[in-house]
Amino acid sequence: MNRRRRVYEGKAKILYEGPEPGTLVQHFKDDATAFNNKKHDQIEGKGVLNNRISEYIFERLNEIGVPTHFLKRLNMREQLIREVEIIPLEVVIRNVAAGSLSKRLGLEEGTTLPRSIVEFYYKADELDDPMVSEEHITAFGWASPPELDDIMSLALRINDFLTGLFLGVGIRLVDFKIEFGRLWEGDQMRIVLADEISPDCCRLWDIDTQDKLDKDRFRRDMGGLIEAYQEVARRLGLHTENPTPGRSGPVLVQSK
What we know:
By secondary structure, the chain is α+β, with helices and mostly antiparallel strands. The chain has six helices and 14 strands. The protein has helices at residues 46-63, 99-105, 134-139, 145-167, 216-219, 225-235; strands at residues 6-9, 13-17, 23-28, 31-34, 39-42, 70-73, 78-82, 85-86, 89-96, 112-122, 131-132, 171-185, 188-194, 202-206. Strands 8, 9, 10, 11, 12, 13 and 14 form a seven-stranded antiparallel β-sheet that branches. Strands 1-2-3-7-6 form a five-stranded antiparallel β-sheet, with helices on one face. The relative contact order is 0.16.
């Protein structure tokens, strides 16, 4: 993919021009970041695991009719996706108090919320991605009221599906971050799920032990991040035999 034009590089992924108009290649890096890139490291094999887990989740969402940018996995680190116009919002769905919500509201981490809560954050690294309201979003034109309605509806539908998916493998979905984009097909536009869904952007706790199986292991210097991601992959039926990734990363089963 290095011979292709690089379109964008973020903290955990690189986007290259795709083989056909309207497509991109999404490459998953091994970079681990936290606190808006104030903490950074390379963790070998992380990108391979995130690619495979995200592929599996996006395929399941496509199957139930949730529109996404995902087309197919190309190799162990790359996916073919549709090119979309990213809406500059991070959408966070919370089911259990943790992280910044616990700090803001003085809630004990692990407290089940009265209902799922959807929060919006403006995507601006230089501002540390500030939390914003629906009024900010519509006033500044980041998304229109009908687009926000679609985003809210899709976010809650995705949450319902993922909660059940992870519950079925003994994992509690505490919260997660997703992004959406505008997919243009001629003159028609629709809102679709974009970016990724992986342990990098979810809080996942073992139901019985409350062990963290997500990026909090990196944020909080707990260690064992790769092992945690491998455990998530294993429970989803995607894992391999080798518990410690070598230079080429974990060997994962092929997609059906």
